[in-house]
Amino acid sequence: NVEAQLRDPHSLLNWTRRVLAIRKRHSAFGRGTFRLLYPGNRKILAYLREYQDETIVCVANLSQTLQAVELDIVEFEHRVPVEMVGGTPFPPVGRLPYLLTLPAYGFYAFYLSKEVAEPSWHAPPPEQLPEFVTLVLRSGLPEVGRDRHKALLESEALPAYIGRRRWFASKNEKLGAVRIAWSLPLPAGADRSELLLAAIDVEVGGRTEQYMMPLAIAWEDQQPAPLVTQLALSRVRQGRRVGYLTDALTLDVMPHAVIAALRKEIALPIPDGGDLRFVPTARLAAMEIPPETPVLRIAAEQSNSTIIIEDLAVLKVVRRTVFGIHPESEMARHLTEQDYANTAPLLGEVVRFDGESRPAVVALLLGHVRNQGDGWTWMIEQLRRALGATTPADEEKGAAFDEQINGLTPFIRATGRRLAELHAVLARPSDDPAFAPSIAEAEDVAAWGRQAEAELSHALDILAAHGPFEDAETDARVRALLDSRTALLRAVDALAQTSVGALMTRIHGDFHLGQILVSGGDAYIIDFEGEPRRT
Question: For residues 169 and 485, which has the higher predicted lDDT (pLDDT)?
Answer without folding.
Answer: 485
